[in-house]
Specification:
single chain; alpha+beta; Alpha-Beta Plaits; 41% strand
Length: 180
């Protein structure tokens, strides 16, 4: 007996960098009936500009969007995405459009909230007796082994992520809490 529960698949697509929000708006306006979700993982960072701190949203994966599909991606959806201005390609390739799996899927799902927003807020951390970072909660949780640099003054941790055989480093914000 087959379950009526469908498995959600995630596909990666490359779009114009800094044009991710525009791509999502264009796709939704041209295809209002399409029941898929375009996911754009972002992170909240405190940035100092002209002596003042303010929070900014920056992409976790600049130039990449992830589409959540109920089952297999059908050709009409592929063509609708391809015809949207700002589209470059599907990952791995346009000829072999395949869902994310394994470590790639785990990396993306770490930053995707199934309930809605995909914004990585500041993590809550403290430093142990050896001055090593310990993550209590937030997006850094589970990525402790991937932290390559910690900047206490700025409240940022540089994390090495892998996606499709490519490694890159991103900064994630944290705030220091007292040890309980």
């Amino acid at each position: 007996m087959l379950s009526s529960l469908q498995i959600m698949e995630y596909y990666a697509l490359q779009v114009r960098t800094r044009g991710e929000d525009k791509f999502i708006r264009l796709f939704k306006s041209n295809h209002p009936d399409e029941a898929t979700r375009l996911v754009f993982p972002q992170r909240r960072m405190s940035v100092r500009r002209m002596g003042k701190f303010r929070d900014e949203l920056t992409p976790v994966f600049p130039g990449y969007l992830f589409i959540e599909v109920d089952g297999e991606m059908r050709p009409p959806l592929q063509w609708a995405l391809r015809r949207t201005a700002g589209f470059f390609r599907f990952l791995r390739s346009n000829q072999d459009v395949a869902p994310l799996s394994g470590a790639d899927l785990r990396t993306v799902l770490h930053f995707v909230n199934p309930a809605g927003s995909s914004i990585a807020e500041k993590s809550k951390v403290y430093f142990n007796d050896d001055d090593r970072i310990v993550v209590a909660e937030g997006p850094l949780k589970g990525l402790e082994g991937s932290i390559v640099k910690v900047d206490k003054r700025k409240g940022r941790a540089k994390v090495k992520l892998d996606l499709y055989d490519d490694s890159f480093a991103i900064d994630l914000a944290f705030e220091v809490i007292s040890r309980s």
